[in-house]
Amino acid sequence: MCGYKVARKLPVRKRRDAGNCWKGGVYHQLLAVDRFVYCEVKDPAYTQHLPGIKTEMSGTLCSWFLQCAKRSALSLSHSQHRLYFRCSCSPGLPVAWLNRTWRSSSSSHNGLDLGPGGVPRAQRHSSTHEDMEIQLTRTQINAILRANEQAVHIPEFDGRGLSAVLKFESNQLPANTPNEDRRSAATCLQTKGMMFGVFDGHGGYACAQAVSERLLYYVAVALMSRRSLEEVEDAMENLRPVLPILQWYKHHNDYNYRESASLYVEHLRVFWQELLDHEEHGEGMHPHDALDYAFRRLDADISLEAQVPLDSDLMRNTALQVAFAGSTACVAHVDTKGIHVANTGDCRAVLGVQEEDGSWSAVPLSHDHNALNGAELERVRAQHPQAERDTVVTDERLLGILMPLRAFGDVRFKWSRELQQSVLDSDCDLESLNIYQYTPPNYLTPPYLEATPELTYHKLRPKDRFLILASDGLWDMLGNEEAVRLVAEHLTGVHLQAPLSASERQMSLGQMHSLLLQRRARAVPALDPNSATHLVRHALGTNEYGEVDQERLSAMLALPEDLARMYRDDITVTIVYFNSNVIKSCDA
């Protein structure tokens, strides 16, 4: 047995799902025994209940620690915390086996040589102990950051009308394997406007995947006029080609649930048939109403599909996975008049505004639905008896488990105990679907969760330059103002430097030197043509001087699967740029 002491404790990133034991914990000691590593988690909030939690960790994660321990002090930074560790081993114990594991197999992804856990294989530096350092090259860093980037230019006039959108740029960087975030972008072909969405899954990717494929269709159908819906229904009824509803902008890595496509079309058809049954549905819904109705209706369909018999076991399994997983969503509908944002959960929409004097400001168009939002916390508590006031949200989580207070799916927080039991007692292999029978504590008066969106409208002005939509993986690392500043500098090429404040004029020579280093760092030209990639790079790699630290960035990107999620979340960013000339002409 060999022991590894963490010289300075590092808080582990909170998980939003229930099946994780790291919540709020800190690594205290690592013990390697045979082929496994055990991590003892120590935390004041837990030690009163559980003196110590032993958690098995994979050989990949153990290998990471051992391979890096050759340095007297390896630093992996997360915010202001640094993890330093040293290693002392008895001769002939696991190090040799772990070194062999690290080098044993490889795969190829995007032209990179990958080791276990999907870590890009770093350059090997020989030593008498046959150890390796983990150091990605600039080429490897760029390949990882740019693997999922997307850039689309929108014609000013597409034959149906003017577009307020000039272009959009997007990117994703996973921490989970597979990535639990999703994104969507589409033009409405039967009505005016474009839609953009980011979706942050939890408990797996299934719900985020389904919502990203389906939600924009529900919104588009609700926007359509009665005449257009009648044409679509007539084509379906007579087996003729159906008019396209959306023009999608897909990245080649984007995935669709093909096995459930027929089910999704069937339920979308039921939705538009019900709209046709309402006499007042003449010219279609207003975007505000369409977004609200579409969010609620899709969540109801997800719940229903998990309860009814379906055509195949594969379709049934997918419906269960979608319903028992969960997803937040932030969707923006943009036309020449303005932006309608519908938000459920903790993704975020932020508007970048350039004032007449050239300065920039960040205007939030959504609010996070979590326990840090006082109004949202009171809304949830008010829906349950006074006796549950102290148990509905505990440890800043719904029933002590879920961080977002609104979400799609997550039927474990919506269905009655009896309904959950009857659905899960079916003949499905729940373990293979990663669905487990458990009831949240203090589950007394469900539902505790809903997908009803909070809606915001903003009338577009010529000074509104871009909209940032992103999952909380970005906002965990960047504030609204910082994100807008980075995109503004990328857009204009002008690096924004605030004048010295009164307090800054009283700086010591050393403090002035630090400020000058920060300002010099901001003047470095952008490395990435794609502004979403630019944001992700700075979110992960910026040091205290405001410059991208290559060593820090390399360390964050080279983390193996087991460790990456403790330092960061999946990140999805879409930046929508507006056509100021079109907005001026429509505003005149």
UniProtKB/TrEMBL annotation:
Transmembrane segments: none annotated. It holds the Pfam family PP2C. One of its GO terms (molecular function) is metal ion binding. Keywords: Hydrolase, Metal-binding, Protein phosphatase. InterPro entries: PP2C, PP2C_BS, PPM-type-like_dom_sf, PPM-type_phosphatase-like_dom. One of its GO terms (cellular component) is mitochondrion. Gene3D superfamilies: PPM-type phosphatase domain. Residues 165-578 form the PPM-type phosphatase domain. Belongs to the PP2C family. This is PPM-type phosphatase domain-containing protein. It comes from Albula goreensis.
